[in-house]
Amino acid sequence: MAGPFYAALATYVLMLLAYRWHQVRRFHMTVMVAVMAFDVAMPFYLVATRDWGKRLLADGDILSFGVWMHFGLIITLFVLYAIQVQTAVQMLKAGAEGGAEIRAAHRVQGKGILVARALVIATGAILAEPTNPA
């Protein structure tokens, strides 16, 4: 079960690097789009490889606060991604001559994404099933 956690952690480090080096536009955009695609694909991977019926229904985890907090954070992250893509498109349309307000909004949204994604990874790690249940 540690594989998805380490993959998410590695992509988070890449995301931090891309946030730091936003001036290198090609690197920044490539990494951010790849991380967003990774985050969209991760739930499909987890549903395909885990026994969620047993975990959520038979074990009763569906009623736990942690599961719903994690789900809410994922929805928040995806909404932030949608808003971030919209402002990125606006920045590309504005070009180099304008868009200071758009850039500022994009930067603040990026910080929010970094926080939300860190929380998603942390709550996912807390909810992860141990590989050797005792």
Distance between the termini: 15 Å
What is the count of structural domains? 1
Q: Which consecutive residue ranges, at least 5 long each, have pLDDT under 50?
A: none
Structural class computed from helices and strand pairing: mainly alpha
Strand content: under 5%
Q: Profile the largest sheet.
A: none
Q: What helical percentage do the residues reach?
A: over 70%
Average pLDDT level: 89
Rounded radius of gyration (Å): 17 Å
Number of helices: 5
What does this structure look like?
The chain has helices at 2-20, 25-49, 52-58, 65-94, 100-127. It is an all-alpha fold. It has one domain (2-127). The longest helix is centred in the middle third of the chain and has 30 residues, at 65-94. The radius of gyration is 17 Å and the shape is elongated. The mean pLDDT is 89.
